[in-house]
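Note to self: keep these together.
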Amino acid sequence: MPVQVSDYSWQQTQNAVFLSVPLRGACVRDTDVFCTENYLKVNYPPFLFEVFLYAPIDDASSKAKIGNDAIIFTLYKKEAAVWEALSVSGVDKQMMQRIREKSILQAQETAKEAAEAKTAARREDQKYALNVMMKIEEQERKKIEDMKENERIKATKELEAWKEHQRKAEEQKEIQREVKLSQEKKQIEEERKKLQHKKSLNRNLASGNLATKGRNSENIFFDKFNEDNVPPPRSVGSIKINFTPRVFPTALRESQVAEEEEWLHKQAEARRTMNTDIPELCDLKEEEKNPEWLKDKGNKLFATENYLAAINAYNLAIRLNSKIPLLYLNRAACHLKIKNLHKAIEDSSKALELLTPPVAGNANARMKAHVRRGTAFCQLELYVEGLQDYEAALKIDPSNKIVQNDAEKIRNIIQGTELKSQ
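Structure:
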């Protein structure tokens, strides 16, 4: 059976009533507040407080503040007047029941009207957004059409200019051909005149000239051609290469070269077998297929604020070895930077799963995982869950002032949250 709360205090002005109800340990999550214009109820198990108000109030603008073991109500009167008492007097059980039922119906009707108004507003917003998108698409379409028309006009002008250039080039070639033909005609005419002039010369003189020309040509055809001596090609051979054997830093009397070579062979086989399922590794060098190398690469990309590239490096490293908690922890930091809050929560939780058992060696990593997950919760406005992670981080490192200050801010947000009356 609920415990009725009768210890309360109230003050009033002409326009408002200030009501303080003490409830030890009351918090926003566990307290149920119900308020209409004539009825007010607070349910915080096992405590119950209800009052049948003396006059109607404006329940839409009234407020309730929960915190510091009390609930403080600010109730605004519908009509400015001084009340004789907080609750109406002479109310029997039947009348109380009627007022409760009427208040519930009134609240349901108000909620229904608010839902309908919200639906209508959302429909109007969608309609407005659709009209805006249609206008934008129309503008883009017109812009594309204008660009196409400008490109067509430009191409047409370029084609006309090219045709004009080709026509002028053809005219120039025609002029050159005509000039060349006229020159050839002149040369033919001059040759014909020279031949006629040669016929009138003395035949004996012509015969002497022909004999001299024959002797000169004879010297041409009988010149000797001296070939350079070309050395023969070299013979084919082979080069033998001897590789230096790998030397282990072990004394000869304690050497286990055979076992170490076998271990290296097995590691190489395992690495090749594991990398066959990852096509991204085909173009990488051997040292780039190491998860530790990829982790260092992701850290350098994170330092240069290239968060997407850092996430890609961590993703590939996790595919190679999914048991390294720092990969998930660093990827969670990248997701926080680009506001992938749910991904940050998943990676922080995975890092905490792998950071077991909790020892001093992984205390710093566990604290970072709690802080990053708590930060993601708070950015999602899940302040209670975020405070739990910050408190877990403080258990690991109680002297961390930054975490202490952030946790205190979250507590103030939770305790000072204002609830509008329903």
